[in-house]
Amino acid sequence: MSKELSAPKGMRLHIGFFGRRNVGKSSLINALTRQQTSIVSAQPGTTTDPVEKAMELLPLGPILLIDTAGIDDDQADLGALRIKRTDDAISRTDLALLVAEAGSWGRYEDELAERFRKLGKPFVVVLNKADLCQGGDARQCLPDAVREAAQIVLLSALNPEAGAELRQALLDCAPASFWESRPIVSDLLSENGTAVLVVPIDKEAPKGRLILPQVQTIRDLLDAGCCAVVTQTEQLAQTLDNLKTKPDLVITDSQAFKRVAEIVPADIPLTSFSVLFARYKGDLATMLEGARHLLNLDETARILIAEACTHHPIAEDIGTVKIPRLLKAKLGEGITIEHAQGRDFPENLQDYDLVIHCGGCTLNRRGMLHRLQACRESGVAVTNYGLAIAALNGILERSVASLRYGGAK
Ligand SMILES: Nc1nc2c(ncn2[C@@H]2O[C@H](COP(=O)(O)OP(=O)(O)OP(=O)(O)O)[C@@H](O)[C@H]2O)c(=O)[nH]1
Ligand code: SF4
Ligand SMILES: [Mg+2]
Fold it and tell me: Which residues form the pocket of ligand 1, taking CB atoms under 6 Å from any ligand atom?
């Protein structure tokens, strides 16, 4: 697998290209990637569905470029659908490029700039087709608020230098949070400390490999000079006995939490991969609140179980079998459970009492935070699989006791 495709999608900086039809969004992507990533034509409305392209933008690292349909698409129903897809792309975007034709800034551009500003999205204004612009500096025609809020690049996608100019603008404007690598767990350990990872190899474990959160956790520990001891539930007691000193932390797969909590002595901090990823990717404080709220629900509850990807459920699937079983045992058989998968995260959340979300390993942090925000705006509590399982097994407080948590962490 080539290097540029090897970074998981959720870890890439998502860069979206937005603007009216025919302004040159696709041409700019092609200039940046130096290949025909997106179809270009003089016909307005050429790009219909979002087109994604993963690449390595050194020294920034892995990025995902998202080309979108023009926001001024006026074809009744079809146009509305395309605009909805572009809205979804905005929500996944870490850094937006607002593309306009040099010299023709107008209402659509104002609206986009205002939306980025409201959402707190960093954006770059790209004034394209500079070659067609007669006299004067097109930058001067922009509203003051836009000139103050964003870096402005004037270029022509047809110019051989366009790719390099755009690349520099992206490097200048990438959000600081993307440059800082956030620790998954190593900040919770003492210097050169030890964590024991409990990784059950059962029929749900993929053949011949570990899953992404496990691999990322091990890498984070190794990067920080810590020691990662990997074991399974059956060997855990023996593994702890073999260590000369107590580990700083035991991290377990959520599904084995109950059994592992019985084995690990009370004076050794214990948590799960899901809890760590709630902190790393989303907002642990909000998800913890959601898990506590779950314990106050009763048989009248309506719960949404949401997964960020679509995958074929296996016999003992966590989202469709295990969690519903635990929920019914705790709250009663009469509860209503609904499911959402992939990008189909419902807009009308206010009728639910709780959203239980998967770990969201295919979402970037912004995508996950966007979903949490949607829940918050609808007044619906939200938690994740790991915290919900911990709550339903009566070990929620122990699983978070060792963590310094907070929205921004
Ligand atoms: N003169 C000139 N033409 C350009 C420039 N950039 C793009 N074009 C032309 O503008 C037309 C539209 O370009 P696209 O890249 O398809 O524009 P788009 O914004 O992706 O358009 P939609 O997909 O329809 O929304 C094509 O004919 C391009 O060759 C430029 O800098 N100068
Ligand atoms: S269901 Fe969620 S956590 Fe599981 S693989 Fe898909 S995105 Fe990742
Ligand atoms: Mg296009």
Answer: 21-27, 40-42, 44-47, 69-70, 128-129, 131-132, 156-158
